[in-house]
Amino acid sequence: MQRVRMSLPFYKDCGWEAEVVCVKEKYTDAVFDHLLSESIPKDIKIHYVNAFSKKWTSKFGLGSIALRSLFFYKTFVNKLLKKQKYDLIFFSTTQFPVCILGAYWKKKFNIPYIIDFQDPWFSDYYEDKPKFKRPKKYWFSYRLDKYLEPIAVKNVAGLMAVSQNYIDDLRYRYPHLNKIPAAVITFGGFNEDLKIASEHFEKLRIAFDNDPKYKHLVYVGRGGYDMQKSVGILLSAFKQGLEENFEIFSQIRFHFIGTSYAPLGQGDKTLFSVAEKLAVGGYVHEQTDRISFYESIYNLQCADALFIPGHEQAAYTASKIYPYILCEKPILAIFNVESSAAKTIMACNAGVVIDINSAGEEILKIQSFLTSLVSENIQPAETDWEQFEEFRAKPRTTQQCSFFNICIGI
Question: What is the topology classification, in CATH, of domain 2-188+392-408?
């Protein structure tokens, strides 16, 4: 959803007129942010569809908004396609089961479709993990994804992804995709979002205690067991710093916000558990409940410095790094240095990047960042904004539209 939202102001300039079909707010579990509409041009047509109420479907274990809305998407879009000619259907969502409708509409209306892989769909990443580290309902979702993904990509006109690894994996599983156009296009930085957050700050809530006695290092985003390694590296360096220079390091507080997709109050504190194991829990706060999009930005703006945890796999890309960079705060990121997120930060000189796979050698680098934060010697990175220009939403939208043209043969 966020990719399309940030692209809507620019599609028309690139020769494309966009209409959006999405689920009505009342059917979703996501934290809804009414301010998002302020970033959408007034002339964009937005169609809203229903979904089966979770109140009823949860009685037999069905909570997925993708599955609950599938029938309504099919019915509504059928009517649209019968009334008007469209050149392309663009699926840009992580609710992947909806994408199987692309194959149906291709067969029924002969309209090409593209799927945007912002995350992997079918993945065996958790197959060798213990049960307690697997997502809830993993047995069902693993088999459902394995069944639906090949249906969705069978007749796809193009593959878009935020990582080349996602495309490579798909082409390995489905060799016919080697003949299909593909493009790696990351999300873009959208200055309008920071402007909207600043204009409405009085409506936005700080999700952490920003006591001025301390320096606050903040991360807003998904947690999970796969993020524990990078968080463990950070907190291990911090613990060592506490032991060697308590006066300095005891002034730091870490905040991990919005780390779970679980219903309010039901998320597991997978990052705080790392702090507990290291006996530094008193310096760490984790809020699993999600916060709204603009509250996320506001919390970043209120921090003294920002932390971005990454994955040990190079395929992982953090789609939210651009708001972090645009906030112009000191950034500490722990990633596989071959990931697109790490390469972006380094290319723009936007922050300090630690290699997750050789972090033991860079403990002093982390401690130096934290020490500078406390002593107030730290400065926001001297971001190369000329280099960053290619990562903004407008040029990213231009890339999308060029790819659309290729996929429909113009």
Answer: Rossmann fold (3.40.50)
